[in-house]
Structure prediction request, 682 residues.
Amino acid sequence: MDIEADLLTSWATALLRRWGYTDADAEFLATTLVDANARGVDSHGVVRIPAYERRIAENLVDTRAVPKVDVSGAVIKVDANGAAGQIAARAAVESALELSREAGIACAAVRGSTHFGTAGYYARWLAGNGAIGIVVSNSEPIVVPHGGKKALLGTNPIAFAAPTESDAVSLDMATSTSAMGKVLIARATGQQVPDTWGVDDAGNPSTDPNAISALLPAAGPKGYGLAFLVEILGGVLSGAAVSHGLGSMYADFDRPQDVGHWILAINIEHFMPVAEFTKRSQALVELAHATEPAAQDNGVLVPGEPEERTRAERLRKGIPIPDEVVNELQQVGERHGVAFP
Amino acid sequence: MDIEADLLTSWATALLRRWGYTDADAEFLATTLVDANARGVDSHGVVRIPAYERRIAENLVDTRAVPKVDVSGAVIKVDANGAAGQIAARAAVESALELSREAGIACAAVRGSTHFGTAGYYARWLAGNGAIGIVVSNSEPIVVPHGGKKALLGTNPIAFAAPTESDAVSLDMATSTSAMGKVLIARATGQQVPDTWGVDDAGNPSTDPNAISALLPAAGPKGYGLAFLVEILGGVLSGAAVSHGLGSMYADFDRPQDVGHWILAINIEHFMPVAEFTKRSQALVELAHATEPAAQDNGVLVPGEPEERTRAERLRKGIPIPDEVVNELQQVGERHGVAFP
Prediction:
């Protein structure tokens, strides 16, 4: 079914309040989820709610927890303190924005966190406030190192965003070729996948989604190297768990995830007036748009533009939710007396 | 021929002094070039010296210029002021290191610069001084945007390095699949190349190195997105030239290159004691090494390790320089009375 974004946000907010979140926290969390759906990143949207329900019920996430924020110079150390990733990341972004206005640059390292939704949400938030944002997070291992047979690192996303005159350019990419979610969809629909997506148990690239047991890094050593950088910043530097030390959101219910994030805010005004910067970034966007496309029917887009188009369409037409997800969400809603719309 | 690294550095230093560089500047510049050769990145090594000779002769690079450094909070704006990229980047790294010791993090944006050698050199320098280093640079356009037919951005490298107990992990990658240098080698040796390297004039991927007129971004939209990030940080934010505004090192002798770099120094001590950090990063390295390899005869390496192995071998056996490059360097040496060893 297609459901209006606002309706979906209201429902998720009401549900999250029922679990103990304050009005503001519930609305923020719901907004991050529905924003992912609106941009077509459905794997990071409301489909996660049943897992949140279970992790909260198991006392692995504390809906009333307030992250601990420790500032030293232009760096911020955040201990999620049992809070969900979104709540911890919000504290990190707010603090980094404030510090970067004074120092010109600030970064926040977050430990003890959970999956925080899309990294791009926080990067775009920074870009909406006069900053260039870079956001990374480690995640549970599911990607083989270049030349390896078994998973070592997560899909370890990298996001960035910077303002333009029209809005912003933004990137939010996994450092693996594909997400595991796409492999699961191929399994469900009985389709083959490109041999660059993942490997079988022997470590050989496979086109059979049922045989794939771990993902491949994007562009081999490059994606592996970037994932390593993310693990260093998000995991090693923050004091969070690293590699197999991370708890799985869907499989480990005996321990917290202990995910780590790293968030950088670069205050543009310290380099040049924001209007000059956006004029320059807009010129680059227009150069990209003016590039002759390889296939005559497609134009060259800038990073973030495909997702912005999806968002515009979904805000108009509604968010498509597959029947099996609707069914799950209806059940969660019933269990807590908040009927799915 | 194979030539001892120290001998090559001494020769390049003597030559650079002859062109007006101070002893310290000449030695630094020579060291960055020979370090690239030692690590197997020969495209960024002494092969560049004849181009330096010409650009200095044409007054496009000033061997006596001192970069202008402007500090505001924890950010540094560097105007290369006619100096070579290495000299400008050195000023940026030194200033970022100093500021980051106080603020915990600092970044430097450099404008008006030239190709600065390998980005990894500066990242490793930072890692050798208690910091995590991230270094990017824009470069003359030679890579098509995802879905585009003509070049928009450069190979726009991203480098990072972080200390470990044994030394450091480091990454230095172009955001394109391949470097143009590799395409040129394939042309010279009459070999085909993978169809992921570049496109022909019609924008179609080609395996014929003679048909390739522009490179492809690594992993499509991911490499394109990362190159865009680099262009934003190195070009737009620094005030340097952007995209086609950049001068070509080898083709444009009527104007300076106006390359831009961006350098980030994260002082580890502000997050945890360096010894604790290196214990944690070393543990990650060892986890990687312990990962079962996909092919039985290869071990899983960490980023930077292949180049370190090449370096160890070349420092032992000498730096291999192809005959045609030796010939060119001999001629440069003769022109300036500094005989190639």
Remarks:
- The domain at 65-176+219-273 of chain A is CATH 3.30.1370.60 (Ribosomal Protein S8; Chain: A, domain 1).
- Chain A touches chain B through 79 residues (CB under 8 Å).
- The mean pLDDT of chain A is 96.
- Residues 85-103 of chain A form the longest helix (19 residues).
